């Protein structure tokens, strides 16, 4: 049975890593936008321009049919 538990632990670790990565990608524009509004961004760190509304920016890029 140790092999089954090993596969389970491996699956849980993969799901955990994936959810942390996707959560960071989702919340990064929201957090950066709020820091910009509050004027709390550090001046020595370059932050790439991020869109807090990615679906709207994607909709602008698509041609209307």
> Which overall shape is indicated by the principal axes computed on the Cα atoms?
elongated
Spell out the helices and strands N to C: HH
Distance between the termini: 56 Å
Instruction: Give the count of structural domains.
Output: 1
Radius of gyration: 19 Å
User: Strand percentage, roughly?
Assistant: under 5%
Most strands sheet: none
Average pLDDT: 80
* Count of individual helical segments: 2
- Strand element count: 0
Helix content estimate: 55-70%
Structural class: mainly alpha
| Unreliable residue stretches | none
What do these coordinates show?
By secondary structure, this protein is mostly helical. Helices cover 69% and strands 0% of the residues. The protein has one domain (2-61). It is elongated and about 50 Å long. Residues 42-65 are annotated as: Disordered.
């Amino acid at each position: 049975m140790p092999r089954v538990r090993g596969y389970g632990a491996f699956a849980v670790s993969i799901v955990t890593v994936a959810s942390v990565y996707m959560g960071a990608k989702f919340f990064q524009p929201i957090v950066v936008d709020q820091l910009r509004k509050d004027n709390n961004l550090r001046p020595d760190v370059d932050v790439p321009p991020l869109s807090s509304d990615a679906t709207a920016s994607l909709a602008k890029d698509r041609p209307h049919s």
